[in-house]
## 1
Amino acid sequence: MSNLSIIWDISKTHLFSKKKQTMVAALGVTFGISMFIIMMSFMTGLNQLLDGLVLNRTPHVQIYNNTDPTETQPTDSYFNAATNLNYIHSIKPKSRLERIHNALPILSELKKNKKVNGATPQTICKVFYIAGSNNLNGIISGIDVTQEARLFNFKDYIVEGDINSLIKKKNGVLLGSGIAEKLSLSVGDKIQILNPSGTSFSLSIGGIYQSGMAEIDDIQSYVNLKMAQQILGAGSNYISRIHVKLNDMEDAVPFSKLIENIYDVSAMDIKEANAQFDTGSSIRTLISYAVSITLLIVAGFGIYNILNMFIYEKMNDIAILKATGFTGRDVMLIFIFQALIIGVLGAALGLGVGYGASVIIDNIPFNSEALPTVKTYPVNYDPLFYITGIIFALVSTFLAGYLPARKAKKLDPVEIIRGQ
Amino acid sequence: MKPILETKDINKYFTDPVEFHVLKDISLKLERKEFVSIMGKSGCGKSTLLYILSTMDTNYTGELIIDGKNVSHESKDNLARIRSENIGFVFQFHYLLPEFTVLKNIMLPALKLGKFDHKTIKKNALEKLEILGMQEQADKKASRLSGGQKQRVAIARALINNPKIIMGDEPTGNLDSKNANIVFDILRELSNELDMSMLIVTHDKDFAKKTDRIIEMEDGYIIS
Ligand SMILES: Nc1ncnc2c1ncn2[C@@H]1O[C@H](COP(=O)(O)OP(=O)(O)OP(=O)(O)O)[C@@H](O)[C@H]1O
Ligand SMILES: [Mg+2]
């Protein structure tokens, strides 16, 4: 029997004789670990869901034609601004078409670029949806449905009907859910629209589109790219926007700068478009960590207290062991082992409880207007949380056990025996 | 032949609450197989001396020589080993580990010393229990024994590593005279048969009279 196995044996016997306190201490750890796992799984699940919502559906780079006034006015180039002081009041943007000037060549060049996963054109037109004597203001975007579905999970937005209806029927439309509700229309019905110049078109509703944001769903519908160009009375080179998905999202910022430099267009990257979103994610993660770590520290204090009590109760045993040839280190190990047994028991139970609770949360129905494809609460089963949980449990129980154990190591057996 | 245990001018002070010179120039010798008792008034320093001799207390000046080896300046860990190899200690209050069985209590010091395997140690422990007439109690929890039984188990434990010296601090102090006699007879037998030296603190004059030699202490001095 090696030294460690004797010490192990003593630790076990001590703990077994104090089943209740051992359980209480272990349950403290269990509580800490399971809360850690539940919080992290749920919070990061939520983050991933939102990331998925926003990041997977948002183009990494959006290319459009800027209608802002130009920064250098013609006067500046005519009268040298360095030697003259030019004042121009009331600058207004020049009337320009909302189309990208040379969209088709840009599109084909983008598609050839190695960094680009895909690029899709959109043609946007303002329309009126006709409902009896009521006209609803709205926007219809012409899209390349297969590309949109492949690159930006467009399918997630379609709550009824089928996106392929746009391909099957030339005049198919995916109608915004708010519009459908207001006009009491459903899949299979027809809808009349007016373009800005007053021409009317009849579209066939192939599906209902719902983004989850009422202000969009009340105005936005989608048709085939060709159909949109036809509504505008424009040619097949009339394209208002190009949405680009890159292979690596991190390239978005330099890539959008590059595009602005090469072509006479504006480009907005996803970071710019979703700046506030990023902070939300990281704050949620931070809060989860803070709460979990607090819980684990509280559990650690629990172990510290109980072990301190054990040592107090076991004074005589410590004196005996030391008097019969056990070293201070042996005695210290006895209590560290006890702490670790409590930690391992508690952590194992905590992993089980954490996993169980996660599965339960994962099955709780969660229906939200904003997230039509999500049916239950999101949970992220990342093994990393479980590993972190175990490591944290062991480290904290070790520390919580180490301090009292070191005290036991230093206890003078003579003092204890004399104290009787 | 060298004495099994020898001290040279051991002095010890307590500093708390006031400086107090508790042991004064203690020089003594314990021969092999010798059965010696220590007597003296309460508070004269007998227990204090015994803790030093047993190497548990290292806070003293002077020299302690066990089996020819000066151990006055050994580290605590070394002393733990020297102690378990050479000295068996019997306390006034039996001091068993209450959660463990009688057998385990006896085996633990030997398991720690690690000289024999588990099986041999178990056999030895049962032998020691038999010497003390306690073999039926081997699997009982130590907390379930009577005072006299505990005292005998404590002696069995002191014997397990076949030490050269057995030290006892009033081992019969809380036993009735019948049990005290049994314990004395056992110790006597052990010193005769197993060649162990005995150093026993006692207040019991009858007990002391039966030993080979009485060391008399007073006020921190050995007076005879
Ligand atoms: N830790 C300590 N601090 C200060 N004084 C102490 C300490 N321990 C013991 N003493 C004192 O040292 C003296 C000797 O104590 P010790 O226990 O050795 O006496 P003893 O001879 O064993 O007495 P008894 O026969 O009652 O057991 C006593 O006066 C006691 O008060
Ligand atoms: Mg005493």
## 2
Amino acid sequence: MNQSSEENSQTQTPKKVLVIGGGIAGLTAAWELTRLNLDVELVERSSFLGGHAIQFCCKAADECQKCGACSVEKRLLEVIQEPRIKVCLRSELKGMNRNSRFSYTLSRQPLHIDPKKCTNCGLCFEKCPAPGAIFRGYSKNNVPLYAINEGKCLYFRDRSCTLCQDLCSEKAIDLDQEQGQISDEADAIVVASGFQAFDPVDKPRYGYGINKNLITALDLERMLREQGDVVRPSDNKAPKKIAFIQCVGSRDHKLGHGFCSQVCCAYAMRMAEAIRHRHPETKVSIFYMDIQNCGKNFSKFYKRCKDSIRFVRFMPGDIFQGDQDQLILFYGDEKDGHAVREPFDLVVLSVGIMPGSSNAGLADMLKLDLDEHGFFSFADPLDSTSTSQPGIFLAGTAQGPKDIADSMAQAGQAARRVGQYLGICFGNSTTY
Amino acid sequence: MDTTVLVIGGGWNGIKVSFELACAGYRIVLIESGTSIGGQAPYDHLASTSKQELSILLDRVKEDEGIEVLVSTRPVSLTGVPGDFHIRLEQHGQILEKATGAVVVALEAERVSMAEAYRLSPGENVLNQSQFEHVLASTKERGLPGGDGSKDVLFLVGLQQEGSPLVMERAMRSALEIQASEGCQATVLVGNVKLAEDGLESLYKQSREKGVLYFKLKGFPRIRQNGSNLRVGFFDGVLHGDVELTPDLLVVEEAIRPHPEIRDLARVLGVDTDAEGFFQADNVHYLPVRSNREGIYVMGPARRPCNLSHGWTDAQNAVLAVCHLLREGKRLVPKEKAKIHRGKCTICLTCFRVCPHGAIHWDNRAVISSAACQGCGICAGECPMDAIQLVDYRDDQMEAQILASTEKGVDGPQIIAFCCQNSAYEAGQMARLFGSSLPEGLQIIKVPCAGKVDVEYILTAFEAGADGVLVLACHKDNCKSQQGNTFAEWRVEDAGRMLEEIGMEKERLHFATIASNMSVEFVRITREMEDKLKELGPNRIKKQAAG
Ligand SMILES: Cc1cc2nc3c(=O)[nH]c(=O)nc-3n(C[C@H](O)[C@H](O)[C@H](O)COP(=O)(O)OP(=O)(O)OC[C@H]3O[C@@H](n4cnc5c(N)ncnc54)[C@H](O)[C@@H]3O)c2cc1C
Ligand code: SF4
Ligand code: SF4
């Protein structure tokens, strides 16, 4: 098995891998692949790398709570500093043909901001008259740091404004840039297209979108990251009583979601602890079915949480509007079952990990299978990166719910499997 | 550099990683303290194709000439540096010496019956999970033990331990199997149903549809064991009342504990364990398979309870790490990050003791291994003789930077913030880039780890005229060098006492922790410092100097 390592010696043109999705799984796969002397084309549909996890807050209380959010920051920095990774933002796979390699076509929406020229001065962001037309990435490591939302930009509505383009002293903005196509070839593919968070509009009983103080956990992650604190959206005041409702969209057989999202108990407890660290007087209740484990020494962590958070084993149904923008939850008392009515200042829906919106399209183009829930299914039960197509591997939540740490580990595995598929072998086989 | 890799643990994880490393071109020494490799079946449920895969794998590992298998063998000591370790092994009272470039620890976990914790004495009608599986497999036709009446089987899961999906899955599978037998009823008493693993929610649903009963308990049930007579009572939160069951058979869960050899091995290898006794400190920087020492990797159930699929994910990550470290065996000389001045060193052993990465060894004098050193500078900060300098952060460079940063006159208070490059420095850069309003007199000085910040630097900053000094580190448990933040905090306390002695307000010096992604926190900490300094007025040393 110790074949010659010469076939991959640096003198030959390095092989290239297409990585689909620039979340933590795609970033990690890309980074590990370059360490195996492979070139990478990293394709990201949105305007920024980092996926969901780059939007998350640090959940440290007295100490780090091992949520992993900062690992994403670090990995993104490593990726943008790695010249072997070519990043294609706002791009999507449009077609794939298998010959001796994989020839593929990407469609590319215009960036309008030239990452090479932009100095991140932020003038466009500051001066743009149309709210939301220019938006900023979550991390300082997003390149470019700003992006233009064509749906909100006045130029794309009626050509009435070119302010940003005129103001930019670096001439980095080109509003007329057109959409393009890229055709190229790769030797292997990693599918890391991630997930979508459950949209609570699909559970109308909660009335998400009606009361401002009913938010999703993703909203809370972003709020804690951007403002460093939690407030009630209705009045920007600190909430005194917060409820988390677990399993929103997950473990819901009525919706056909017969799976656990594996991360929601962890993030809810960690965020609750982080909030209580800042505001020890805040009362937090978590409504749950079963609490799932996370990280090392979970029983100790859970015990600590139980000391400061109230856990109620009940899934509240409808959520009602109370006075002063409060929200009313009804639940059964655990002792005698009688109905309890309790108001909260802020209710957080712990939304789950749902299959990505592009899974079906990608599966079709790449001839991969999806499982009963719509995640990519793996071929070998002992290798969750494997697919029915040689040379195509899975990483991260595209394959099924998992946290940041597991997404990174799986991405490492996928990179290694690509290396194996391409015959990469380092060891000094000439000595024996 | 040696391209042999030592793999410790001949279970299914050790076998897998040995095979994969051999595929990647490395020579392997696989050691196992027991008498054979692959002896124990994996903990988790496997498809029959996977079982076949295992036996093929075992054959290939046994046949591979590049893999030397040593059974009844334990490591005794490890010396050397990453790429060139020397390990002494003990086999039947004999010492074997091996050279190895890297070490992968792939010990399996241990399963321990929890009958005692449940205050049950094992017997015909009280079995632990493994025993019950054995009975299921062997006596399917003959019926269950305990005579004809043995039809109601009660499983106890997650009531005396938090449990895990691994434990849960086994109970659910056995319950399903029993439920399918004619006239049998399976009931599960459980704390939290642990389903955070692919496919377990479906299994849970399937088992309930087949008639398995689940009761979720908040406390511990009343169990009375009187010979063949079993009574289990508890409060049920759904029925809101007491329930009493008289099962024919009780099946008690097992705990998954760290391998008993881990404690000794951790000492031999000089690597950290966690609070439960598994390998790897609870620190996200080490994920997935790094230990605190370069060149020593920990994987699978050696670092946390996990199923085989996750263990093998680790195995591939260990291969990546080894490939990166050893490459083809001819690596460029690693960049030197820290230097010991021989003339100044009094051989006090401080650096050797404090280095969190085991990068300093003893060869009549202290020697830093460039391959192992992470450049944190904790040793430099602790060395009482100032005999250690970091190449990129020499004391004279640091001093020059401190002096330069107070030169510019500013309106507001002058604040010098020593920022760890892994956290605070990044957060500060982000705050700047996002145009957040930071104190005008804020000067950021980057350090490789807060553990590099010397008391000297803090005092120099005040002497140079800073009105306030911040030392900003990673959160506890988030330091890449494990204790850099703790050292920094101690030094800030020391420096604070010194300031008080010379009559300076100790509030001018502040230690705080922060993560790289929290620019808002950076703004808050620095602004709070500014506000405090505005109240306190200018630094008196500076005033004296000016007057
Ligand atoms: C509210 C919430 C909080 C969480 N908190 C934590 C936490 O604290 N700790 C933790 O460990 N985990 C947490 N998680 C889980 C965490 O979000 C995931 O583990 C992680 O983000 C998965 O990364 P990924 O790369 O697989 O997917 P994603 O983050 O979804 O990234 C996928 C990327 O691929 C892109 N993409 C999608 N389709 C295509 C396509 N067709 N072509 C090109 N690009 C495409 C997307 O735009 C996206 O950038 C949380 C999850 C939620 C919902
Ligand atoms: S709580 Fe999360 S983001 Fe904060 S330091 Fe710990 S792992 Fe990093
Ligand atoms: S700089 Fe850090 S890693 Fe290097 S020898 Fe000193 S203490 Fe060890």
